[in-house]
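@channel sequence for tomorrow's demo:
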Amino acid sequence: MGVVVPCYKIVELLDSPEAKKDRDEIITRLQPQMFILEHGKVSETPISSHMSKNETSMTDGPKPENSKPSRIFAQTALICDSLYTDIVGRSMLIGVYTDDFRVFQFPTTIIVTLFLRIAGDAGTYDIEFRAIGPNDAALLLPNKTRITLSPEHAYEPKVFNNLKIQIQSSGWMKFQWKPPGRDWETLVSCDVKLLALPETKPAKEAAANGTEER
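structure tokens (generated this afternoon):
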């Protein structure tokens, strides 16, 4: 036997002034830190608790610095099924792909999320990204996005949701980006593998008896 707390009681507790005060104190006191490579040395920079704090639309904000090769790099690049951000701004990646994609048929369409953490010199940059398969076949056409790296937080988490990738064959699939003034660079790659469909129990028994199921 057990006791189930009604959900509205939990909501009341989380929305109480005391709970809100505790959350604010925790965010201020335990804001995570990260190390980034900047001007040839390692410096400590606090992580922002808001994923979209530095996001800029393609038509607003300062002029992008596209006249020279950009001094920015992808500190983290991950492919996952989805991303969830909790109340204190921590990002939780769900269903991270490590080495390979396993599918049961070709062609097949998968929907994924690309998570990037970009670091480097402060400024505004227009960046392209794409996905290619074997023989450089386009799995996702080039997309453009604009990011801003501020002097206070010289990094930018960027999330691209609901990317529809149509896979035609097995082989290496690469997610790439193109910073200003540079060529396409591979962020993360996965090996696409075709798996055999599991046999049903009657089919296994028929094969064992040397007969075909009719």
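heads up for whoever presents: The two ends are 50 Å apart (CA to CA).
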